[in-house]
Specification:
This protein is α+β, with helices and mostly antiparallel strands. Helix content is about 20%, strand content about 40%. It has two domains: about 120 residues, Aminopeptidase, CATH 3.40.630; about 100 residues, Gcn5-related N-acetyltransferase (GNAT) (Aminopeptidase). It starts with a strand and ends in a 10-residue tail after the last strand.
Length: about 250
């Protein structure tokens, strides 16, 4: 029978059997499973005998200090249910990121809120405009990741930076309201963050909400192209009590 066990950080390299750091669709789970700081990760794997058949990452990130990011890698519904039971703690919300096609596999013992479908985009360097905006200020996050901002009246009106940076890919995000977008400011900071990753010989990726046509157009202008891979992003919470393993 398959069993789910905690994965010691010293053994995390075993998980590389199930994901490839060189594939865009695997880049996010591969980064958090293999490279995210050890003190900020809990890992569980499902095994059938000696065969590793799935895993889940629960990671503390700078994106949300109070809700861990939970990323399951599962081959079937039974594996997904077991992995989520291990990673989630009853009554405590987390952020779920998983392939959209696996949405029907989710059990009734988890509650989803604020569901979004996001498209994974990969930069096509030939489409990158090499735009330079003198208003963009380069800075960094407390974790040491690059961040680019445009300020007005002492406030940040547009920003872009990295959620994570792996050996081959980096995930770029962009922030800004409708006015900043209409003025091209979010486009400028997105281009700055993207150019920084190109200079570091990394391939930029970005997740764009499927329903946000303006963000889709903006990403396309900077040179991002859809990979065809779609993901579900949502707040998730277990509703059946807490039998999960203890951990940070």
């Amino acid at each position: 029978m398959p069993e789910i066990l905690p994965v010691p950080i010293a053994d995390r390299a075993r998980l590389a059997k199930l994901v490839s750091e060189r594939l865009p669709g695997d880049a996010l789970p591969a980064y958090y499973a293999l490279n995210h700081p050890a003190r900020r990760v809990r890992l569980f794997a499902i095994q059938n005998g000696s065969n590793l058949v799935g895993f889940v990452v629960a990671a503390q990130t700078g994106q949300d200090l109070f809700r861990p990011l939970v990323i399951p890698v599962a081959a079937n519904p039974e594996a997904l249910v077991g992995l989520l039971e291990a990673a989630l703690r009853g009554g405590r919300p987390a952020l779920l990121h998983m392939p959209l096609e696996q949405r029907p596999w989710l059990p009734p013992s988890v509650d989803l809120q604020d569901e979004r479908v996001v498209d994974l985009h990969r930069l096509d360097p030939k489409g990158f405009p090499m735009e330079i905006n003198v208003l963009v200020i380069a800075t960094s996050t407390p974790e040491g990741l690059p961040r680019f901002e445009i300020r007005s009246g002492g406030s940040v009106v547009a920003a872009a930076g990295l959620n994570w940076r792996g050996p081959f890919f980096a995930e770029v995000y962009v922030e800004g309201g409708p006015q900043a977008r209409s003025r091209g400011l979010t486009r400028s900071v997105l281009a700055a963050a993207t150019g920084k990753m190109i200079s570091e010989h990394l391939v930029p990726l970005t997740f764009v909400p499927e329903a946000d046509t303006a963000a889709q157009a903006e990403a396309t202008w900077v040179g991002y192209r859809r990979t065809g891979e779609r993901f579900l992003v949502a707040e998730v919470m277990r509703t059946d009590g807490d039998r999960a393993q203890a951990g940070p």
